[in-house]
Amino acid sequence: MKERVRNAPANLSGLAEVLRAAAPAETTYVRWLTVPHGRELRVVTTDEICYLRAANKYTSLFTANAEYLLTNTLKAMREKLDPRSFWQIHRSFVVNVAAIQTIHRSFHGSFEVQLKQRRELLPVSEAYSHLFRQL
């Protein structure tokens, strides 16, 4: 113990750089999308998105007042969106958490999501129900 006190401390100056290099790069997620609308492209911010629904190899994107068909799969879209804001609630649905108004529980124990600005109820599959059980 006394010998450790007498010796100079280890040189740790390069340690911070090594740790920074080893840490995974922060993923940046999209903040807006350009979506086709007739002969135009519309800019839709991620805040405007209520939910996305799988449509075969395409994705339907729903805002409060519109629906757009995207040429990407739901999986590809999910990877572009921040998972803290967009939750997969069913294999066919990804929802903007900020767009959720109410979570309904059926008498069977399954959940459905009611959105603030849309009328439809979105199903929550058993595989994703844990997201709402913790609330």
What does this structure look like?
By secondary structure, this protein is an alpha+beta fold. It has one domain (10-133): LytTr DNA-binding domain (OB fold (Dihydrolipoamide Acetyltransferase, E2P)). 18% of the residues lie in helices and 37% in strands. The chain is built from four helices and ten strands, in the order H-H-E-E-E-E-E-H-E-E-E-E-E-H. The strands form three sheets. The chain has a five-stranded antiparallel beta sheet, with helices on one face. It has a three-stranded antiparallel beta sheet with strand order 8-9-10, with no helix packed on it. The longest helix is centred in the N-terminal third of the chain and has 8 residues, at 15-22. It starts with a helix and ends with a helix.
Topology diagram in text:
Layout: H1 2-6, H2 15-22, E1 32-37, E2 40-45, E3 51-55, E4 58-62, E5 67-70, H3 74-80, E6 86-90, E7 93-96, E8 100-105, E9 111-115, E10 121-124, H4 130-133
List the defining traits of the structure above.
elongated; 4 helices; three-stranded antiparallel β-sheet; five-stranded antiparallel β-sheet; 135 residues; alpha+beta; 10 strands; OB fold (Dihydrolipoamide Acetyltransferase, E2P)
What's the quick description here?
With 135 residues, the chain is α+β, with helices and mostly antiparallel strands. It is 18% helix and 37% strand.
Strand order of the largest sheet: 5-4-3-7-6
Number of strands: 10
Structural class: alpha+beta
- Overall number of domains: 1
Per CATH, the superfamily is: LytTr DNA-binding domain
The percent of residues in helical segments reads 10-25%
Broad shape: elongated
What oligomeric state do the depicted chains represent? single chain
Strand content: 35-45%
Distance between the termini: 51 Å
Query: Any low-confidence stretches, pLDDT <50, length ≥5?
Result: none
Radius of gyration: 22 Å
**CATH fold topology:** OB fold (Dihydrolipoamide Acetyltransferase, E2P)
- Helical region count? 4
| Average pLDDT level | 88
